[in-house]
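User: Can you model how adenosine-5'-triphosphate sits in this protein?
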Amino acid sequence: MADLEFSVVAEAFEAMERITSRTQLTLLLARLFKRTPVDVIDKVVYMIQGRLAPDWKGLPELGVGEKLLVKAISLAYKVSESRVESLYKSLGDLGLVAERLAREYRSKARRSTGLMAFMEGGETKLTVSRVYDTLLRVAFAQGEGSRDIKLKLIAGLLTDADPREAKYIVRFIEGRLRLGVGDATVLDALALAFGGGAHARPVIERAYNLRADLGHIARIVASLGIDALRGVEPEVGIPIRPMLAERGKDPAEILRKVGGKALVEYKYDGERAQIHKDGDNIIIFSRRLENITRMYPDVVEMARKGIKAGKAIVEGEIVAVDPETGELRPFQELMRRKRKHDIHKAMREVPVHVYLFDALLRDSEDLTSKILPERRKALEDMIVESEEWRMAESIVTGDPEELWSFFLKAIEDGAEGVMVKAIHRESVYTAGVRGWLWVKLKRDYKSEMIDTVDLVVVGAFYGRGKRGGKLSSLLMAAYDPERDMFPTVCKVATGFTDEELDRMNDMLKPYIIPRRHPRVDSKMEPDVWVEPALVAEILGAELTLSPMHTCCLGAVRPGVGISIRFPRFIRWRDDKRPEDATTTHELLEMYRRQLRRIEEAAPTEA
Ligand code: ATP
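Assistant: Here's the modeled complex, given as structure tokens:
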């Protein structure tokens, strides 16, 4: 098996740390990918993102705390733990400590054995596989005696690492690699390296949307070329990135947007589930593609009994219901269930129903390229309905009035609103895309701003007075998918209880970084910069234009961006990744809609 020296990767890591532009980052990654043998390209792709596999594989955590890492460094470089700790105090980064001690250790070894002997005998060059496989073994070492095993594995790796490698191995283990490489950057780099340039990006992206495993996709394109990706179809066991909806307000306008007649379904207020079935084997993926199978033994059972096809991928919403009446309960109820430790007790207290709305694979047939009416028919044909496992409530209509009464009925029944879905000739399943094929119409929040938005924390400010010394307001950003950047929208300082504030300070800690993250676009200078990772739901009075923010900069008027007046924190959205935040494009739409409403409300001359 062809391998790559780990020093090449460590060198790239170091270069990436100095880069502040995303274009340079992409170029550097593309060069690294080209140098990487096919056999290990998946490992390199995972490692630059600071992980060993996609999150949905649910690999155990490395389980190496600071104490153990200090021990490993001391063991590797034959120095006392107190020396490691005192260096850590002065350098503030265990990666730098390891780098320094590795350098000292090597020069001592050279002096005592003589340079030649050291070169010939003592030095083992690390490879990507050795580092990756060792870290994998660290993760899988569980239970009794595992601390010792982890310690020895890491120390062994560090002993053989050169100073730079040691720095990055330690940072990786600590979860502090922070290179700012998002999925979109990897896709761009793969297009450059193996597709001949940016024009190959859509092909790679499509494949990734259908099989959300960047390492797997990198391996296919690196070994078989870009054409091999064109034929990629969904595979049971690998999650498909979910199709998402735009938001609408007016029934007639929504129907126009989806092309007239549409399938209108209840928009249930629960958790999205992508259910994969292979014989008796069931896996459930969440909206952000985490494996949530263990949380829902009841749904696993429903799917086993309720899907006739041997192999299938279907989508539905898991909703909490009243144990007595079977009526729909809100999302918060489902979260209450998820927080409970005893899952079987939780299952009894908060039972769930599943409302199915899509089918993406049936046996070996890829349904994502089929139009919605065909997918829907396939779904109906392959499931066996019961009280708790059934099709989403729906009608087909082209009449705004009928849509509206169905919407009111949905709300009365405890749903969040409706989903209006196109059924025309192009109504295929657009994995990973938020578009006008699906439009959501939701219950109004009692406020001026029609809908809340989900924004990403990119910075924070210290409070004054009672809140002095604590981070108490947040710089929030939207997501710009075209540029793969996070431009700022507003500063949020209200809506936090004191308790929430304390929790927030703890939550932010691991994400604080010394400089602006390369994917953040900001005119403001917060007291601390935060890596884009945490998403919060924000409600405001209205959307405004602001010269301080970079969201949709210049799109409405030169030099100003879109912002939110009186933004208020509502809750954390743990189920969303930063790339799932409200997009710049959605905010621009919302802004335009607000303008239209104001214009419509203005008195006209008689
Ligand atoms: P929101 O923030 O409004 O909850 P979202 O950003 O998570 O939504 P959207 O695409 O905006 O995702 O809304 C679609 C979500 O609504 C889906 O992810 C799914 O969980 C849920 N949902 C409920 N009922 C349906 C349905 N009948 N069809 C599709 N999605 C549905």
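A couple of observations from the model: The mean pLDDT is 92. Residues 94-113 form the longest helix (20 residues).
User: Helpful, thanks.
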